[in-house]
Amino acid sequence: MPVFESTEVAERVFGTLFEILLQNAQFTSQLRASDLSIRLTQTHPDCVLHVSADALTVGDDAPEEATVRIKMSSDTAHQLWLGKLMMPTAVATGKVRISGKVARVLELVPILRPAFDHYPELAAEEGLPV
Amino acid sequence: MPNHDEFDLNLDVLPGEVEKLRLQVREFARDVVAPRVTDLDGAPADDFDWDMVSQGHALGLTRVAVPKEYGGLGLGMLGCSVALEEVASVCAGTALIFGAAMLGQTPVLLSGDPRLQARFLPLFSGDAPVLACNAVTEEEAGCDLIIPANAVHAREVMTARRDDDHYILNGTKRFITNAQVAAFASVFAAMEGAPGATGLTSFMVPLDLPGVVRGPVADKMGYRLCLGSELEFHDVRIPAENMIGNEGDGMAINMAQSNMARASVAGISVGVARGALEQALQWCGTRVQGGLPLREHQFTAAKLAEMSAKVDAARLLYLKAAHKVDNELPAPQYEPAAAKLFADRVAIDVADMAMSLTGARGYVKSFGMEKRLRDAYGARIYEGTPEVLALAVTESLYAAGEPI
Predict the structure, then answer these.
(1) Which CATH superfamily is domain A7-123 in?
(2) Are A101 and B69 inside 8 Å of each other by CB?
């Protein structure tokens, strides 16, 4: 049984998560300074997001081009942002697949850390298991 | 309009920083390593040349894959593989000193944990060289610690036990390159209570902790300039934050680490083969028999041509593998395994043919060819034997297209 009942719910939760991050000046300045953009492609249910320092795009309009492209299931994303699944485990076991210069990915990981702080509350508000 | 840059497949041109490093390392290998190789190869097994390592460290060979923000060169596995080929063209053992250091760093790189990275990675950027090692193999467990299906059958594996906010490690690792000279090790131990090695867990362990004992150095056939030794852990107490991932993630991390590192080992094997080829070319171009240089005798020419083609093919495979490793997480299984499987065989074949072409001189130690042949057999063992690599390759062939 997937954690997210529909694409709409997944897009709402993860879209809100990254909207919050984009309000964080440090997050956007780090993205801009590193010239980083991220395309998240989640499955079961499908959920696509594109994040850059200037904009968040959710759904079919999300641009294909990104410096870092991350693919995982929405359940994996839920476990990851809750802090229940460690990134090295997720990557090592292939639950998370990342393409792009690995050096850029390593720059991205610390930038994303605020997501771990915000996600549990967002998930709880949506009635998702935390 | 198509972007023509995307179609510019120029396999002769490395990225600028990698090419610059390659040229610097080539000089280092020629001017620093080569003059010492014969003496160090014949020295007692525990002899170690810190001065040579220091000069390699000054070039960045101890931190090629470490990100720039932590003081490294940030050149990834491509930079690492290319640099190690250059060193190995003169001495594979010296190349492995730096390669094993990189391998010990890999779990920290994979961790994505800024705190672990900030603690361990800057250590490689100081004035004095710092080395690391990767401690997996044990007396009763080799492949059982790198093939997931074998894990349940592993026997007498080193153990880890949680004790509040620490873990207690007990056991002995064997044949660990750099163990004698490293400042810390990535160590794989099985959680107590889990069958075999199913609870394998990865830890970063400073080797100056109480209870760590560096055992005797193995007297090896080849790779004599790097030291392989035992590493004993007697109730070694390490902070829980030194664990990579979670308890039981060790097998997956070990595999991910191997997939990252195998391209660089293929680079070492290519270096061994290239060194043998270059020495054979020099000999066959000047040695005259029957009124002609050897290279103009058709049987000799056939061997030289085959050797050269094999070296080039092996290099292309490792460059492709390294490029993929630098652009995908997790690192792919197939390309690094295929590159290493092929390059390890090429090193043996080319060194053997070079030995044959150089006749009696090749059989004399001072000529250096017999060392290349001894070294050629080394890479066939570490970071995956041909048998282990074959399983990795075929598993990848059957797993193509697996959905996420």
Answers:
(1) SCP2 sterol-binding domain (3.30.1050.10)
(2) no
| Amino acid type, A1 | M
Domains in chain B, CATH or no CATH each: 4-125 (1.10.540.10), 132-250 (2.40.110.10), 254-399 (1.20.140.10)
pTM comes to 0.92
- In chain B the first and final C-alpha atoms are separated, in Å, by 33
Q: Which of B85, B230, B335, B383 is catalytic?
A: B383
The pLDDT assigned to A93 comes to 82
Of A89, A94, A101, the CB nearest to B326: A101
- Told to judge if B383 belongs to the known catalytic residues of this protein, a careful annotator would answer yes
Among candidate residues A75, A45, A85, A95, the one with its CA nearest the CA of residue B404: A95
DSSP H helical ranges for B287-333 = 298-325
DSSP 8-state secondary structure symbol assigned to residue A63: -
User: What is the interface pTM, i.e. ipTM, of the complex?
Assistant: 0.84
Cis peptide before B67 (omega within 30 of 0): no
Q: Does A33 touch chain B (CB under 8 A)?
A: no
- Across the interface, whether the CB atoms of A72 and B404 are under 8 A apart is answered yes
B119-130 pLDDT, tens per residue?
999 999 999 999
Question: How many angstroms separate the CA atoms of B381 and B81, rounded?
Answer: 18
Indicate the helix (H) or strand (E) that contains B334: helix B334-357
Strand-strand pairing, A56-58 and B228-239 = unpaired
